[in-house]
Design brief:
CATH architecture: Alpha-Beta Complex
Distance between the termini: 29 Å
Number of domains: 1
Strand order of the largest sheet: 5-4-1-6-8-7-9
Strand content: 15-25%
CATH class: Alpha Beta
Order of helices and strands: EHEEHEEHEHEEHHEEEH
Structural class: alpha/beta
CATH superfamily: Spore Coat Polysaccharide Biosynthesis Protein SpsA, Chain A
Number of helices: 7
Number of strands: 11
Helix content: 25-40%
Length: 234
C-alpha cells in the first residue's frame, strides 16, 4: 500500500471518482414526471450550498487526498466543463445504480492513470467529506488487498463512499451484467471493511460527515449545516 498518512502528498496509486450519474428523482420530482424531460436536466451536485455548488465542495475536499480525479456522469459532459475534470460515463447502459459508476471509474483509471491500483468514490451531493477520508480507508485494508473499505458514521454504512481495488473490475462488470444491483451484496463477496468516522461537532450539533442532499428539504438542511461548519472553520 502507498503512504496514506492524512498529511502526506496524494497517493498516486489511488484515483478519485465523484459519482454524479444518478437521475436525482427525489430532488427534481416535477421534471422527472415529464416523460419528455431531459433525464440529465437536473444535477443536484450543481445546486449551491453557501458560495459554491455541492460538487465544488466535494472536489475541494477530495482532490488533495487522491492522485487523478474524475467525475462520473451521463449525458452531455459540457455541463461540468467549469470544473476542469475528465467526465466519464457509465460503461453499462440503463442507469443500473452506483456500481456502474464504480466500474466506469475503475475502467478509466486502468486506461488513463498508470500505476493506479484503487479508486475512491464519493457522491456529488456529500459536501462534508472528511479531509482524511482516503488515508483512513486505505489504512483499513492494508493487509487485505482485495477487500473494499466502506465509510461508516453513526453506525450506518455509506456504500457509495469507499475504496475499491481496480483488479476487481472484471468481476464487477460480470455481476452487473448478471443483474446484481445492491452494492453491499457485491462488496460482501470480496470483503466489506467498515471504517467508522466521527460526527462533526459544531455549535452543539452533530453533523454527519457523509450527509447527502437527496431532497429539497435535505438541501436546505445541508445549507444550514455548511453555514455552521464554515463559521467554525471545521
Amino acid at each position: 500500500m502507498p503512504n496514506t498518512d492524512a498529511h502526506s502528498s496524494p497517493p498516486p496509486a489511488i484515483a478519485g471518482v465523484i459519482l454524479a450519474g444518478g437521475l436525482s428523482r427525489r430532488m427534481f420530482p416535477i421534471a422527472r414526471s415529464d416523460a419528455c424531460a431531459d433525464p440529465h436536466g437536473g444535477d443536484k451536485g450543481l445546486l449551491d450550498i453557501g458560495a459554491k455548488s455541492m460538487l465544488a465542495h466535494v472536489i475541494a475536499r477530495l482532490a488533495p487526498q487522491v492522485g487523478p480525479l474524475v467525475i462520473n456522469a451521463n449525458g452531455d459532459p459540457v455541463r461540468f466543463a467549469g470544473f476542469g475534470l475528465p467526465v466519464v460515463a457509465d460503461t453499462i447502459e440503463g442507469y443500473v445504480g452506483p456500481l456502474a459508476g464504480v466500474l466506469a471509474g475503475m475502467r478509466w483509471a486502468a486506461e488513463n492513470a498508470t500505476g493506479t491500483r484503487w479508486i475512491v468514490t464519493a457522491s456529488a451531493d456529500a459536501p462534508f467529506l472528511p479531509r482524511d477520508l482516503v488515508g483512513r480507508l486505505a489504512a483499513a485494508v492494508t493487509d487485505q488487498p482485495n477487500a473494499i473499505a466502506i465509510a461508516q458514521s453513526d453506525g450506518d454504512l455509506h456504500p457509495v463512499i469507499g475504496l475499491w481495488p481496480i483488479a476487481l473490475a472484471d468481476d464487477l462488470e460480470a455481476a452487473l451484467l448478471s443483474g446484481l444491483r445492491k452494492v453491499l451484496a457485491w462488496t460482501d463477496k470480496h470483503g466489506t471493511v467498515p471504517v467508522a468516522f466521527d460526527m462533526i461537532e459544531v455549535e452543539g450539533r452533530s453533523i454527519d460527515p457523509f450527509f447527502n442532499a437527496n431532497t429539497p428539504d435535505e438541501l436546505a438542511e445541508a445549507r444550514r449545516c455548511m453555514a455552521l461548519i464554515e463559521a467554525a472553520g471545521a
